[in-house]
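Before drawing any conclusions, I needed to go through one protein's amino acid sequence and its backbone structure tokens, quoted below without any editing.
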Amino acid sequence: MTEIASIVLGKLIEFTPGFLTRILLPPRKQASRIILDLRSDAPVNCILDGRVPRLDLWFAITNHTPLRITLDRLIAEVWFGQPTFERALLIRHLVPPNSTVTDLLMRCELSAGQAAQIAPYAQTPAPAPPITFHLTAYFHTKIGLLEVETRIERRKL
């Protein structure tokens, strides 16, 4: 029954003018219903011994809103004990209402200094300072641009 109500609500939102939709679905409340996270299955792939060291980060976006949202950009500031790098994912991705997208890849080529900073975290046991991901995403929706920020801490890669 809830699936039918969700489908009907989605169709109503498609045909409702944007200004009215913004009143019915306040942007701040809708932004709080979008979850940014690292993908649960192997979110970080670390290749530090190649010719060009790199780090692959996989993200997941869960949309708990009745709106179709389009990821405009995702900015990640990553700390391995201290600020290590900042990258942006600039490829647009559509996230349907009440769904999760888990195939967002951010490939980060690293300098020798960044690879040296990350190397201890790839060993077991990992050092004491956590790995911190500061994520900021911007989404285009029918009610306007939504900004979502989150902070994720991990103890090992």
